[in-house]
Amino acid sequence: MRQRILASLLLLCCTPLSAQVYTYIDAEGNRVFTDKPRTSQAQRIELKPSPAVPISPPQPARLGIPAPPPQQLAEVAAPAYALLRILLPQVDASISHAGGEILVTVQSDPTLQEGHQYRVLLDGQPYGEPSRSAAIVLNNVDRGSHMLAVEIIDAAGKTLERTPAQPLHMQRISLAQKRRVNPCQKADYGVRPECPLKDKPVEPRKLLPFL
C-alpha cells in the first residue's frame, strides 16, 4: 500500500499545475490520487505553486569564453567617485582682483584616494599644477569670461571624474582705475603698485632769500 501511495505522489508531482487533482478511498481502503475521479466522493486537492528558483547566468568559463585578464579586472574595480563639485567660485560669478587671482575650492565623495589629484581646467585647458588640496589658487587669470572645471586624475594623468564646466567673469582693475578711486599721496609713491616713483611729482625748490 505504501508503494502505491508513493507512486501516486510521484504522479502528482509530475502533473501540470493547470490540471485538477483529486483523491478518494477505493473499495479496498487505499487512498487514490488521480486527475480523473471515478466517484462523486473524490475530493479536490488545492495545489500550491512551487517557489521560483533564480537561475544564475552561466559563467564565461562554462561557455568557453576566456576570463578577462587581471589588469582589466583591476580597472573595473578602480574606486569611483559618487560626487565631485566646485564650491567656489559659484556659477556665473564675477571676480574682481587686480592680479587676476581666483580661489577654487572643490568637494569629492569619497575623499581623494591615494595617488589621485585635482586638476583645474580653464577654458578646457589645464591651468596650474595638479594638487591634492581641495583649495587651489589660480594666479594671473586674464580679464574676461572663462569656463571653469575641475577633474580628478590618477598617477598616470588619466581623468577619473570631471565637473561640468561653469562660467565665471574676471574683472581686473587697471592701475589707472585704482589711482582714480584712491589717489596717490606723497608717501604712496614707490609703495603702491599704482603709484610708481617715476610718476611722483617734482617738489618745487625752496629759494633762500638774499641777505
Characterise the protein shown here.
It is a single chain. Strands 5, 7, 8, 10, 11 and 12 form a six-stranded mixed β-sheet that branches. About 4% of the residues have low confidence. Helices cover 12% and strands 29% of the residues. The protein is rod-shaped and about 155 Å long. The chain contains three helices and twelve strands; from the N terminus they run H-E-E-E-H-E-E-E-E-E-E-E-E-E-H. Among the domains are: 44 residues, no CATH class; 89 residues, Sandwich (Immunoglobulin-like), CATH 2.60.40. The longest helix has 12 residues. The N and C termini lie far apart (156 Å). It is an alpha+beta fold and 211 residues long.
Summarize the structure.
InterPro entries: DUF4124. The chain has about 210 residues and is an alpha+beta fold. It has helices at about 1-15, 70-75, 175-180, and strands at about 20-25, 30-35, 45, 85-90, 95, 100-110, 115-120, 125, 135-140, 145-155, 160, 165-170.
